[in-house]
Design a protein that fits this description.
This protein is an alpha/beta fold. Helix content is 33%, strand content 25%. It has one domain: 4-Layer Sandwich (Nitrilase/N-carbamoyl-D-aminoacid amidohydrolase), CATH 3.60.110.10. A hairpin with a 2-residue loop joins strand 8 and strand 9. The chain is globular. Pfam families: CN_hydrolase.
Length: 315
């Protein structure tokens, strides 16, 4: 760049192009294509404050005529320890989901509630929860619930240690993609991103968007976040929508951020910068169809050699 005194690195060019793309998208939305809004936030144990932040983001997205808003994993809260996490959990009939239901109805917008701390069926005896991805339609009704199937149990060399299975029940099934104003949405949560079989099964069932609301650690985010999201988009020729937690939640936990949307060709078409905020992307389903037509990956699968990935019934 003239007068800059230096050349931008490849990463610098990627960031610059991303910013220009986001700026262009914000001023030239095509009304014939559904618009999605993807949230980034820093949840704490203050549920009222978290709701206030999310409510503000949802209302902002509504003013921009978004058809659907995606909230990250743990949008309701992030506790400082296991005891607090369990103490703050609710049922699907509790106050938090009811408030979001009213918000969806009043804003006339679909909501992806990316990871809700739901009390398990034997709460009174075992005090265990589900990590539940809840989708509300624009009338406030629950249209789908996916309970996270892959639980994050790691001890990283950086010192980060998380044992989700200590208090979380793994989900027992995948759920079919949800018909939404933005397209057919396949549901995952955070760590599910590392398991391509889940994405393939959802795509085989008709998914056009895959969504991974997350609270990635900084260590894993720096190394793997974008590359995994782009890989799932390229492999499945789907849009990938990833709302994210960011920043310091408490002295023990910090999240990577970088909420983003990836298109079916693997390009990052929207991304949040630092802090709380939104990014927007148009979902161009005819374009998705052209990508799949020009490179018919699904038809080229050698299921005779390695089998068919399918969504199994829960029985």
């Amino acid at each position: 760049m003239a007068g800059s005194g230096r050349l931008l690195s490849r990463a610098g060019w990627v960031l610059l192009i991303g910013r220009l793309w986001t700026r262009r998208m914000s001023t030239t939305m095509d009304p014939t294509k559904p618009l999605v809004a993807v949230c980034q936030m820093t949840s704490t144990s203050d549920k009222e404050k978290n709701f206030s932040v999310c409510s503000g983001l949802i209302q902002e997205a509504t003013s921009r005529n978004a058809s659907m808003v995606f909230l990250p994993e743990a949008f309701d809260y992030i506790g400082g320890n296991t005891e607090e996490t369990l103490h703050l959990a609710e049922t699907l009939e509790g106050d938090i989901i009811q408030r979001y239901s009213s918000l969806a109805r009043s804003c006339n917008i679909w909501l992806s509630l990316g990871g809700f701390h739901e009390k398990g069926p034997k709460w009174e005896t075992d005090r265990r929860i589900f990590n539940s991805h809840v989708v509300l339609d624009s009338t406030g009704h629950i249209v789908s619930i996916y309970r996270k199937t892959h639980l994050f149990d790691v001890d990283l060399q950086s010192g980060v240690s998380l044992k989700e299975s200590e208090f979380t029940i793994p989900g027992s099934r995948l759920v079919p993609p949800v018909n939404t104003p933005a397209g057919k949405v396949g549901l995952g949560v955070c760590y599910d991103l590392r398991f391509p079989e889940l994405a393939t099964a959802l795509t085989q069932e008709g998914a056009e968007l895959l969504t991974y609301p997350s609270a990635f650690t900084v260590t894993t985010g720096l190394a793997h976040w974008e590359v995994l999201l782009r890989a799932r988009a390229i492999e499945n020729q789907c849009y990938v929508v990833a709302a994210a937690q960011t920043g310091s939640h408490n002295p023990r936990r910090t999240s990577y951020g970088h909420a983003m949307v990836v298109d079916p060709w693997g390009l990052v078409i929207a991304q949040c910068q630092d802090g709380t905020g939104l990014c927007y992307a148009e979902i161009n389903l005819p374009y998705l169809g052209s990508v799949r037509r020009d490179m018919p990956v699904q038809r080229h699968r050698r299921t005779d050699l390695y089998g068919q990935v399918t969504m199994k019934s829960s029985g």
